[in-house]
Amino acid sequence: MRILKSNKWYIQMLLIFLFNIFCIMDPASANNIEVNKSIDNKNKNDFNVLVINSYNPYSEWESYVFQGIKNKLDNDTNIKINLEYIDSRKRCDKEYLDEFSDLLKLKYSNKKIDAVLSIDDEAFDLARSNLFNSESIFYKTPIIFTGVNQNLNFTNEELNYITGVIEIENNLQLINMILSIHTNVNELNIILDNATYSNVIKENIKGITDYFNRSVKINYIQSTYIEDILEGLENNNGPNSANIIIGDYKSKDGDDIYPLSETIRLIKDVTKTPIYTKAQPYVFTGIVGGIVDWGQDHGNVLAEILIRLSEGEKVSNLKLIFDSLEKVVFDYKSLYEYNINPLTLPENSVFINKGPFDLLLPKSVKIILLLALISLFIFVLLIVIKMISHKRESAKNKKLYLTAQEEERLKTEFISTVSHELRTPINIILNTSKLLNLKIENSNIDKEYLKDKLNYIDQNSQRLLRLVNNILDLTKIQSGFMEAHFEMKNIVEVVENTVLSIVDFAKSHNIEVLFDTEEEEIITAVDEEKLERVLLNLLSNSIKFTSANGNIMVMLRKDIENVIIDIKDTGIGIEEEDLPYIFDKFKQVDSSLTRFNEGSGLGLSIVKGLVTIQNGTIDVFSKKNIGTVFTLTFPITEVTQNKPKYAITSSDLQETVKLELSDIKDKENY
After folding, report:
1. How far apart (Å, rounded) are the C-alpha atoms in residues 198 and 219?
2. Which residues have a Cβ under 8 Å from the Cβ of 269 and sit 6 or more positions away?
3. 108 to 38, 76, 100, 101, 445: CA distances (angstroms)
4. Cβ contacts of 645 within 8 Å, gap of 6 or more
5. How far apart are CA 426 and CA 435, in angstroms?
6. What class of enzyme is it (predicted)?
């Protein structure tokens, strides 16, 4: 007998040692930090509560209950919670429970436990069975319970120490709800483990089959192992079936409980039929939902009882609570996964995974609504596009109208200007002719006088010819009838000869003309006639608007592929806002002054056309009262040497110079 007692003492000490090691090493039992603190706290005003969980720290429903307790007790600092776990899924025989009870007595031997809070059946059975055991830590200690699924009958003496929440199994409501939602279901798979709760559910369902909304086949698929559950589902996987899952499962290859989400994933791989539950933790794993005991609400109720006990109220005054504290919960996303009409669900249902703007409408209605919204969006978008298009079209039409109006004004002004330009030289020619006739009639003709008047006639004829040529050339350029006739020449020589041809004329107006080149010879394809006309137009313009004692500089250079000619003057310049328009036909940068043809507005338009025909470009830079620079760029190219239609001689160049400078005889000084 002594040997047995001695061995028992050693076993107890060994269990205490192992239990303390477990508490230190188990990361999931972080709540034990609070437990240890409570043990050291010897404040006589503390109300010490021993919370015994039937399972381990990973049990989600028990965690929800404790969460509710903790939230409620946040402001009650005198209530000290001490957490313990039976871990009944691994072992729950009498020997283990007796040793566990003895271990608790040793562990809390230095403090008084004022109340025991048991969660689920196994913890309650342990506490109740030792309530009147004087050797136990539970001896005549108030017991508050929840999560107990078995039928309970208490003696009057027990009711002096025991109170809590008695769950009312409402499996009939869950099954009838499933049958109402799924009108085609004729088979229900009840998936259970071997825990007390599962057995209670099984017996309850067996007793209520006569009260179902309609007759359905019930298949009980019960095992501790997930492999057996999956096999059972494969054998009962009809298209018109539904499933109710309760319990935790493990693999035959190991002792660890499968995470609930992994359990559901494996089940979904086997069956595509909807899954419901009675257990709160499962509603967060992607199933449809269920009618579940809400752990946080249980925790709140238990905490209220603890508060009343800590304030001195007797257990016998606290009535048993007959309420499962259930919620009807659905996963919003899963409703549409299984094509469930939300309008068929019970009122006051709770929805998880539902956004603030998610609508509780049938899938077909949501599709119709979505299509309607898309159609409305497209309709509004089309209206907006139409309005923008109309606005752009109106702006375009307005711009076209203003452009047409401006062109009409320019044409009218051009006709008026051309008429004036034609009338002036014609009048001079006519008047000079009349004077000559009078002289001839009077036989009083002076040779110098005659030469001077003939010069008037010649100069104004040149002005008329230049104006007519400009109009004809502009017409040819716009219609595409003017072409370049290239021949291989030294472009440096062509430019130099052209510049030198107007030096004397410019000097007569006290304007210095300089020519500078970086290259003495650049052989390239040149249309000599058109290049001369371009240069003379630009030089004529520079002379016209450069004051006396000013200068004109012509510089020629080249890069790898181009010949570049800069014509720079110190004239009156051009306003910056006029620069974008100076190449437009009929456009005048000044109502009183025209850069190239006095009043005609054609000069630069013709110059740009001639440059473009020669595959070149023209750019301008100008500042008012400082001067202007025109830059001509022509590509260096080769052509087959063709004999030109006619050879340009120095006399031809002089005639061209005479023609292009015909309107600068009496130039104003600016």
Report:
1. 14
2. none
3. 10, 22, 12, 11, 151
4. 485
5. 14
6. transferase
List the structure tokens of 350.
Answer: 């709770």
β 487-490/523-526 pair status: antiparallel
- At position 168, the amino acid (one-letter code) is I
Distance (Å, whole) CA 420 – CA 212: 110
Average pLDDT over residues 261-286: 94
pLDDT digits (tens, 9 = 90+) for 399-448: 888 888 877 776 766 666 666 666 677 777 777 777 777 767 776 667 77
Residue 503 burial (C-beta neighbours within 10 Å; 0-12, 13-18, 19+)? middle
Per-residue pLDDT tens digits for 312-346: 999 999 989 888 788 999 999 999 999 999 998 99
The token duo for 13 is 């000490």
- Measured CA to CA, the distance from residue 311 to residue 47 in angstroms comes to 9
All domains of the chain in start order, with CATH = 2-166 (3.40.50), 171-293+325-357 (3.40.50.2300), 395-474 (1.10.287.130), 483-660 (3.30.565.10)
Q: At what angle do helices 447-479 and 603-613 cross, to 10 degrees?
A: 60
pLDDT value, residue 603: 76
Helices and strands of the chain, counted as H and E runs: 18, 20
Tokens coding 5 = 């007692």
In what order do the strands lie in the sheet containing 350-352? 217-222, 187-192, 241-245, 275-277, 289-293, 326-331, 350-352
Cα separation of 244 and 229, whole Å? 12
Contact at 8 Å (CB) between 594 and 603? yes
- Whole-number Å distance between alpha carbons of 304 and 295: 14
| pLDDT classification of 471: cutoffs 50, 70, 90 | confident
CA distance linking residue 121 with residue 54, whole number of Å: 7
Encode pLDDT of 25-74 as tens digits.
443 333 443 433 333 444 557 899 999 999 888 888 889 999 999 988 88
Residue from 85, 84, 88 nearest 96 by CA = 88
Instruction: From 194, 173, 508, 493, select the one nearest 345 (Cα to Cα).
Output: 173
Q: Tokens standing for 492?
A: 């440096």
In this prediction the pTM is 0.55
CB-based contact 551:511 (threshold 8 Å)? yes
Question: What is the rounded CA–CA span in Å between residue 601 and residue 590?
Answer: 10
In the chain the first and final C-alpha atoms are separated, in Å, by 138
More confidently predicted of 645 and 493: 493
State how far the Cα of 614 lies from the Cα of 610, in Å rounded to an integer: 7
Beginning with the edge strand found earlier in the chain, give each strand of the sheet holding 512-517 in spatial order: 512-517, 551-558, 562-569, 627-635, 617-623
**One-letter amino acid identity for 326?**
E
DSSP class of residue 509? T
